[in-house]
Structures are given as C-alpha cells and as structure tokens.
C-alpha cells in the first residue's frame, strides 16, 4: 500500500508563532524539530497500518524544513521548492491515499493560527468558481485529479472544521485549539504525536470508503490581494486574466493545473 503525505508547518503540535515558521528567526530550529518528529510519528503509524511505500512532501515555504538527519529511514522525502503544476511530485493513481498534516485554515478565518491561503503576505482570499477555498481544498483537488483520496487532515480546530466542510468523508485531528492568529490552547507535542498516530491508523483503515475530491471544469479563480501594488504587478489579457477592481483579479482555464499555474 502506497501513501502520500503532505506536511505544512502552521498546524504542527506546539507551533503558534511567526518566529517559529521563518528560517533565520529565533524559534525556527525548534519548530523544525517539532515538524520532523511529528512527520516521523505519522510514518511509524502508516507502517503499522500496512503501508509499504511512503512519500512525504515538505510543503511549507521553501520546502526545506525537515531536519534530514532525524527523518525516519523508511520513507522517501520531497524537499525544495516545486511549481504548482508539479505540486506533488511522484503522486499517481497507484497511491491508496494522501494525508494533509500540519495544515492551517484559509485566509480570513476568525481565531485561527496563522490563517492564510498560499501566502500570508500577498493575498487576502481565494474563490474557486465563486466559492471560498483554502489550501486544504486546493490540495485535495490536485490530489484528486490523480485519482487519490485525502484520508486525514490535521491542524488546529479551525483547520479541522474547514476540512469537515470541504471533505465530509475525511478524518481530522486537532493538534491545538486556536485562540487567535498567534495564540492557542496547546496539546503537548508528545501527546499530539501519540494521538495523531491513532488517527492515522483509523484513517488508513477507512481508505476504501473515501473518494477522491474532483470538480469538473471550466474553472474561475478569484484572488483578493492585500494591496493594490500586488494587483498592479500582474499581467492581464482580459480573457484568461482580468482585473476586476483595485484589489481583485480573476483567472480562467478549462484545466485546474493550468489555472493555478497562470494565477500563482
């Protein structure tokens, strides 16, 4: 059984602050260790559940946040920046499922730890075909295009609520209860790792009942920027890319991957 794992950082147990998430900041090395250990716990649980091939993607920022020397030896790792058209390298329909670990709520979510969609510096929000969407929904659609279902999402409680709305068949595990953008009621990381392992085992056991998330085209993606200069910097042709107002642009395509490559 093959399983693909995508790991972000904001939703990892023990992470709440900006300084934990950015290379060079005082607390970043501590958060890297928390990320790596939680990833290893997921790998252990997948092996116990019968996985024979595990691919883990570092999906936060630069894509190089794991501590390589500490990574579990029985998985393979995608590290470094990847283009959106190849967001999940190596993923195909031979995988039984995917896990979204350490994710966060979409931009604009109230009382969520580090809520954003794709970037916290440039965009307020995204809408796909008129409906608000975050990284959980986008990644589940990209994974679903390969015929692979998302089995589990982990992150703060607002992340789990978003997952339940986007993916009603999918299991979710809350690593913390968010109290604001940089505040949470935390579970100790050791407890998170233990409870997450049990959630992974249950989710994998339910794999056959979960279907890939898919949405037929054509597609229209609306981006709401933070500042007008960010919208100014984009190119618009009036058809595939159109500026609606000072802060809003819309992108159109028949293929989802093409759409995201144009917009991102």
Features:
264 residues, alpha/beta, Rossmann fold, 2 domains, five-stranded antiparallel β-sheet, 6 helices, 12 strands, 27% helix
**Can you tell me the CATH class of the largest domain?**
Alpha Beta
What count of structural domains? 2
The strand line-up of the biggest sheet is 3-2-1-4-7-8-9
Proportion of residues in helical segments? 25-40%
Mean pLDDT: 96
Count of discrete alpha- or pi-helical segments spanning 4 or more residues: 6
Relevant CATH superfamily of the largest domain? Dipeptide transport protein
* Beta-strand proportion: 25-35%
CATH architecture of the largest domain: 3-Layer(aba) Sandwich
Largest sheet: 7 strands, mixed
**Poorly predicted spans:** none
What form results from the Cα inertia axes?
Answer: globular
SSE string, helices as H and strands as E: EHEEEEEHEHEEHEHEEH
Structure overview:
There is one protein chain. The protein is an alpha/beta fold and 264 residues long. It folds into 2 domains: 191 residues, 3-Layer(aba) Sandwich (Rossmann fold); 45 residues, no CATH class. Helix content is 27%, strand content 25%. Helix 1 packs parallel to helix 4. The mean pLDDT is 96.
What does this entry show, briefly?
The chain has 264 residues and is α/β, with parallel strands linked by helices. Helix content is 27%, strand content 25%.
């Amino acid at each position: 059984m093959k399983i693909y794992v995508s790991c972000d950082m904001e939703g990892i147990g023990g992470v709440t602050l900006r300084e934990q998430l950015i290379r060079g900041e005082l607390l970043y090395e501590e958060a890297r260790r928390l990320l790596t250990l939680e990833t290893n716990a997921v790998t252990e649980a997948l092996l116990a559940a019968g996985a024979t091939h595990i691919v883990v993607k570092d999906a936060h920022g630069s894509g190089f946040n794991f501590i390589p020397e500490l990574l579990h030896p029985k998985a393979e790792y995608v590290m470094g920046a990847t283009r959106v058209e190849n967001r999940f390298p190596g993923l195909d329909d031979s995988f039984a499922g995917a896990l979204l670990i350490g994710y966060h709520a979409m931009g604009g979510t109230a009382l969520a730890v580090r809520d954003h969609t794709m970037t916290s510096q440039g965009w307020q929000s995204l809408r796909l075909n008129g409906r608000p969407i975050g990284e959980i929904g986008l990644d589940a659609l990209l994974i679903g295009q390969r015929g692979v279902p998302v089995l589990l999402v982990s992150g703060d409680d607002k992340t789990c609520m978003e997952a339940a709305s986007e993916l009603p068949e999918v299991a979710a595990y809350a690593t913390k209860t968010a109290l604001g953008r940089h505040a949470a009621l935390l579970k100790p990381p050791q407890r998170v790792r233990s409870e997450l392992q049990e959630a992974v085992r249950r989710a994998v056991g339910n794999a056959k009942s979960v279907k890939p998330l898919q949405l037929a085209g054509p597609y229209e993606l609306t981006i709401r920027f933070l500042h007008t200069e960010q919208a100014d910097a984009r190119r618009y042709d009036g058809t595939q890319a159109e500026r609606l107002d000072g802060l809003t642009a819309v992108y159109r395509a028949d293929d989802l991957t093409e759409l995201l490559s144009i917009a991102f």
